[in-house]
């Protein structure tokens, strides 16, 4: 028995390099080297190479091919991962954006766990998968792999195969074509001729247009962003608003049709994400819809579950309260015109004058601006009274002027300037349930959850309406800045509200999509272009103006145009009192004059 032949047979059995002739191995290695150097290396300086097989022999053959390839290749840093069903599975966590995967089946792809590693990221990865299997198994395995790419939104996903005739072919899929929508049929996109790939574009553009395919949009009635109406003529749901204009522009740009899913019909308890659950609108988005809109504000939880592009709308959340809680009382108004130091000086000087005079009545009469019944005989006392009279006259004029000004302006005490000050004064915050869930992510609010309550409404206008019913109690509302300003402008008493200067938080709204959505790059690029050209700002301004016009009812317009009688009741009472006093004085003077005339006539 030849010992060398036995050793060589054992080596061949262990390494499985006899899967095909050496020329075919070198042919595959050249094809992979071309892909790495001319395609993947142009995208990134790093590369993750994953070997995942069911058969140990195929894994060793992959290693042999990689050794042949890497031996003469020094162009990029490589992270080599190997997975096999015969050994314990080892998890190598971390982002794997540019991937070269060597598998012998669909099961080998699943065993690599690469789907879980890239699940929490938004932008697309690149997958170049080399499938090595028997020719009669290629159609089935290829279909399963491409379906996996479609299910997990791997848009840049190519599969290279080598046939028994040593033909190296590259397949991919187009999710939207004129023949099908949201399907992964294998399409040959490249072919290796021994030196290079025939088509220089390895990852073709797949979303240049969507061929009129329906894109499901999850939304609800949230004016002025989305306004839903039922059209009786067409017996269908119609939508308008700022965000609808944005989606319609995307539909024209990418050539797709919009299929609306009305979230308003779903019970409100399903909106909540309790204990990290993905149930609610976002769970529906992951399973049924491609886009969601309707003033969905960005939060850490939503960004973790879904993908969102560039924010097209931002608005500060502000705290609004009624000034009635800080109105100065009647007694407090009497002391406000002067500080306490001035009052102490006046009281001290008054005590000094009383001590000098020993009788306080004339001094008090001069202080109140009244005339004396008789002058004192002493010139010293007359000099003191004259000095006191001329000294208090400027003070009396200033005091009366300031007092009249304060009563007329109805000034308030120092109003709060921050959310911390409101909570320190035991105010209670009211907002929508959607806003409350976002506020709970703030550390300040998380420690004072009992000070906030959410209303069962998605509209900030209804929250501001509820503020009027509190009657000046220590309650403040939290709403968006734009909605608050529009509400105050349409109110009959805009000066009765105070907007805290420091924002509670800043909201950023965006279009949400499933993780790794095909539409992410296109939507983000389109929003950037629209924002740079000013279209988003113009659409948003026009939508808000149109919404305000619809909100203004004739009664509200009359309140703004005319002053109500209740606002003039104080003036009516004052004028009635003054005319009554004048009438009594006139009647008194008339009676006194008649009495004098009668007395004079009797004497004559």
Automatic annotation (TrEMBL):
> Which UniProt keywords are listed?
Cell membrane, Glycoprotein, Membrane, Receptor, Transmembrane, Transmembrane helix
Could you confirm whether the keyword Transmembrane appears in this record?
yes
What InterPro entries has UniProt attached to this entry?
Insect_Ionotropic_Sensory_Rcpt, LBD_receptor
Cell compartment(s), UniProt: Cell membrane
Gene coding for it: Dper\GL14586
Q: What is this protein called?
A: GL14586
Q: Which GO terms describe its cellular component?
A: plasma membrane
Instruction: Tell me how this protein sits in the membrane.
Output: Multi-pass membrane protein
Top-level taxon: Eukaryota
Q: Where is the Putative ionotropic receptor ligand binding domain?
A: 20-209
